[in-house]
Amino acid sequence: MQQRILGQQGLAVSAIGYGAMGTAVGYGPSDDTQSIAAIRTAHDLGVSHFDTAEMYGWGAGEELLGRALAPIRDEVTIATKFGFTPSYAPNSQLDHIREVVDGSLQRLGVDHIDVLYQHVDDPSVPVEDVVGVMREYVEAGKVRYLGLSNTTPENVRRAHAAHPISVLQTEYSVFEHRAEAFFPVLEELGIGMVAYSPLARGFLSGAVEPRTEYGPNDFRQHIPWWAPENFDANHAIVTELTELAESKGVTLAQLSIAWLLAQKGDIVPIPGSRNPERVAENLAAAQLELSDADLARIARIAPGGGVVR
Description:
Strand order of the largest sheet: 3-4-5-6-7-8-9-10
Order of helices and strands: EEEHEHEHEHEHEHEHHEHH
Number of domains: 1
Number of strands: 10
Largest sheet: 8 strands, parallel
CATH class: Alpha Beta
Strand content: 5-15%
Organism: Agromyces bracchium
Oligomer: single chain
Distance between the termini: 39 Å
Keywords: Oxidoreductase
Shape: globular
Number of helices: 10
Protein name: Aldo/keto reductase
Radius of gyration: 19 Å
CATH architecture: Alpha-Beta Barrel
Mean pLDDT: 95
CATH topology: TIM Barrel
Helix content: 25-40%
InterPro entries: Aldo-Keto_reductase, NAD(P)_OxRdtase_dom_sf, NADP_OxRdtase_dom
Low-confidence stretches: none
GO molecular function, one term: oxidoreductase activity
């Protein structure tokens, strides 16, 4: 698979990565054996970048990803994140960062983390102080590159002034365009982007169902695209996008990932699936080139992203 460069510090990764959140939390029951098979299928098909976080199962996701990648550790980059409490409140207190990062190294079974992210802003801790602790791990050889996630353009600028930031991770898809507000600062500072939820948390997977079809603990119960007042309009968008995809002989998921790849040359989407066949489907998007006419049609179908009233 083609490589993309994220930032100016040397981080090179596959054009499509693998997001491992669903192997541990959020999308219904998971099976570790199947998840490991999906992760290894991704690697076999050219993926070299794998993303997880302490929050994904509070360490269970890191442990699973570490086991899956152990035989091929030297062939991949691994990203993880700190910054939450078990009640999902922000926590980037400096001692907490050290505790989580030390734990992540152990759970992943690695001597270094390739990309370390602050998972979310903590208003009680200046980002310069957060980056100062992250820099300690870079200087110790335990972290290679730094990133921010779920933040603001101003925080990106402040963090980068304290230590070079290689990558911003944020949600970005045909349904979610707010990431584009970061483009000016990322281009100015030479920072890449990793796009999570590139299939709009499953709405663009080709298998979307109403909220009633998902379990009570499924994240989609709380996402406005699935709200009863929005679902029909968003399903209509999906129908039009699917027609375009079928006219090109591809799936809706492949069209959606290819759309992201076409936006900028330093964007890396990280779709996640526990199904090896779906992983292969997603990764085939790397071979799909969309024309200007295709991109214009997608813009007409979903001009502002998904419908939220």
